[in-house]
Amino acid sequence: MFTSFTNAKGLWLPKMVRVKQKFDAPVVEDIPGTVRLELAKLSLLKSINAGDTVAIAAGSRGIANINAVVKAIVRDLKQIGAKPYVIPAMGSHGGATAEGQIDVLKHYGITEETVGAPVIATMEVMQIGVTKDGLPVLIGKDAYEADHIVVLNRIKSHTDFSGVIESGLMKMVAIGLGKQKGANMYHRAFFRYGFEHVIRTVFQVVLASGKIAFGVGLIENAYGQTARIAAMHADELEMMEQKLLVEAKKLSGRLPFDELDLLIVDKMGKNISGTGMDTKVIGRLMQNFEPEPEKPAILRILVRDLTEESNGNACGVGLADFTTTRLVEKIDRRATYMNSITALGPQKVRTPVYYDTDKEAIENALETVGLTKPKDCRVVRIESTLHLREVEISESLLPATATRTDLEIIGELREMAFDEDGNLKA
Fold first, then answer.
1. Tens-place pLDDT, residues 250-299
2. In the prediction, which pLDDT does 411 show?
3. Does domain 31-251 have CATH number 3.40.50.11440?
4. Which residues are bridge partners to 324 per DSSP?
């Protein structure tokens, strides 16, 4: 049992109040119906014949309604006589094993029983070409052996870089379908050529192979709900993804304030972001060849726990300054290190200063913010970087809410509440 060695115990902690953020938030109400309408626009019978095998590529992120979307795609492909199956397209995630990646999909409700199609996985890759820079282009054998590939992913800001295309369908084609071997090679190439360049050039080779039948891009609103479903032919994918990223950024969630002394994050995890916490939300990229964002500017970050869906993969824990013993004890070092080495980001899995209780962690974090008294610190507490609708803010931030039409106070100002074990209450 490790106890604080500072004089932090007994500090007068800031009072907190719950507020609701108001974001523009369109929602797709009928997932299966919308998928059907989108796929109908593609006239699939013109490109997919009865009896053709179709690999539906699904990733490792906690995407809203992902199982329902996969099920709907399977349904429509079967209706034209195709033989769909699902494959994991997640690079080295799931411990870089086929079994681990199938288990990741299972966590998101994607199994043969739930979506109506077999789930097949292998880490074996096949080379289908070479980029103009001389990089071998690899895709998983599970995708290579299909007559067609369907790429399905959420389109959003990337946690490691900013560009015209970031995290979405093209990245999945390169990093996801490339399995561990491809993902590792492309991440190394990022150092020389840059993220966006590598993703685009690898995608262009896969596109030229004729394997991609179509893509389905998903956009989520700030509340983590499906805001848009867009299906597109393979040759439209690059242009459409650029447009959808602009839309996604407008809808994305953000913290209510740009300057904080302490951000408390209840949970991080792979189902929330590839880096456990969305780097664009917390304002920390920690990437050797990308500048840090100017905003938000957060002095200290405390992350309290790791989601069950992460299966011990704590990539991104190093983005925090403080954490808890319970999070550290949940870390699967093999899975975490495998993922971070593949992504060339060992700095993001450094273990932060950690304490046995939330109370100790908060007190010690507030000891490191400078001359500001703990009770006067600018503190925000969030459930995760994916769930920003309702957050807690400290008393010192209340005056700034007076003229904010996008913030609604929905609770009473109160002391931080801890349970008998010294951990924050919900």
1. 999 999 999 999 999 999 998 888 899 999 999 999 987 778 888 999 99
2. 92
3. yes
4. 355
- If you write DSSP's letter for every residue of 342-407 in order, what string do you get? HTT-GGGGPPPEEESSHHHHHHHHHTTS-SS-GGG--EEEESBTTB-SEEEEEGGGHHHHTT-TTE
Is residue 167 within 8 A of residue 232, CB to CB? The reply is no
Residue listed under structure tokens 């966006």 = 196
Residue 300 token pair: 């200290």
Considering Cα of 179, then 180, then 183, then 185, what sign does the dihedral take? negative
Question: Could you read off the pLDDT of 160-186 as tens digits, one per residue?
Answer: 888 899 999 999 999 999 999 999 899
The structure tokens listed for 132 are 């103009």
Listed residue (98, 103, 139) closest to 121, CA to CA: 98
Q: What is the mean pLDDT of residues 143-166?
A: 93
Interval 379-404: pLDDT, tens: 999 999 989 999 999 999 999 999 99
* Phi (first) and psi of residue 417, to 5 degrees: -105, 125
Alpha helix ranges (H) inside 167-303: 169-171, 179-193, 195-208, 237-251, 279-282
What are the sequence ranges of the domains in the chain? 16-23+254-409, 31-251
> Residue 16 has which token pair?
């907190």
Is the pLDDT at 36 greater than 70? The verdict is: yes
Distance between CA 129 and CA 190 in Å, rounded? 18
Structure tokens at 336: 């975490």
- DSSP annotation of 174 reads I
Q: What are phi and psi of 380, to 5 degrees?
A: -130, 135
Q: Give dist(CA 366, CA 395) in Å, integer.
A: 15
Element (H, E) at 228: strand 226-233
pLDDT, average across residues 322-339? 96
Residue 73: CB atoms within 10 A of its CB come to: 27
Taking the complete model, does pTM exceed 0.70, yes or no? yes
What CA–CA distance (Å, rounded) separates 79 from 83?
10
Q: How far apart are CA 117 and CA 424, in angstroms?
A: 43
Amino acid, single-letter form, for residue 135: L
* DSSP letter (8 states) at residue 13: P
